């Protein structure tokens, strides 16, 4: 299995799991939806869960994997404000919670790089 396929598989599982969690336990995610966004947090939670599931599907299928990599990178950029909101909201929390919130910030960069790797691996054939 090539590195691009492995990375696509990893991202598909990660996003699929996150999508299921967003839909099954939305209250867990509602609190990190940036308050500056208009409308109800739950709508954004469900929309991001559906997007995660859709992108996971694109990554899982070889013929749509390149599009899936592009969509995954865009999704990881789009959800970054929620990670910033979490880091801000948890700034006074216990050390473990603060570490989780702060650790998510650079992790987004790693995930974006992995999504781009999928695209370049598909392009290289």
Poorly predicted regions:
none
**Share of residues in strands:** under 5%
Average of pLDDT: 95
Q: Write down the domain tally.
A: 1
Helicity range of the residues?
A: over 70%
What is the succession of H and E elements? HHHHHH
Main location: membrane
Keywords: Membrane, Transmembrane, Transmembrane helix
Transmembrane segments: 67-88
InterPro entries: Methylamine_util_MauE
SSE arrangement:
Blueprint: H1 3-24, H2 27-30, H3 41-60, H4 65-78, H5 80-89, H6 95-124
Helix pairs in contact: 1-3, 1-6, 3-4, 4-6, 5-6
Describe this protein's structure.
Helix content is 80%, strand content 0%. It is mainly alpha-helical and 125 residues long. α1 packs antiparallel against α3 and α4 (65-78) runs antiparallel to α6. The radius of gyration is 15 Å and the shape is globular. The model has no long low-confidence stretch (mean pLDDT 95). Its main location: membrane. It is a multi-pass membrane protein. Residues 8-79 form the Methylamine utilisation protein MauE domain. It is found in: Membrane.
Label this structure with key terms.
MauE/DoxX family redox-associated membrane protein, single chain, transmembrane, globular, mainly alpha, membrane, transmembrane helix, Methylamine_util_MauE, 125 residues, 6 helices
Task: Provide a compact summary of the structure.
The chain is an all-alpha fold and about 120 residues long. It has 6 helices and no strands. The chain has helices at about 5-25, 25-30, 40-60, 65-80, 80-90, 95-125.
């Amino acid at each position: 299995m090539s590195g691009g396929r492995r990375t696509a598989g990893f991202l598909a599982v990660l996003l699929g799991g996150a999508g299921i969690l967003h839909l099954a336990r939305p209250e867990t995610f509602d609190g990190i939806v940036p308050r500056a966004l208009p409308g109800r947090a739950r709508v954004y939670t469900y929309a991001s869960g559906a997007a995660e599931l859709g992108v996971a599907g694109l990554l899982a299928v070889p013929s749509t994997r390149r599009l899936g990599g592009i969509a995954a990178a865009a999704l990881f950029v789009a959800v970054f404000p929620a990670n910033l909101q979490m880091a801000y909201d948890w700034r006074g929390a216990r050390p473990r919670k603060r570490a989780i919130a702060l650790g998510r910030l650079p992790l987004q960069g790693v995930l974006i790089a992995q999504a781009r790797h999928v695209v370049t691996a598909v392009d290289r054939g």
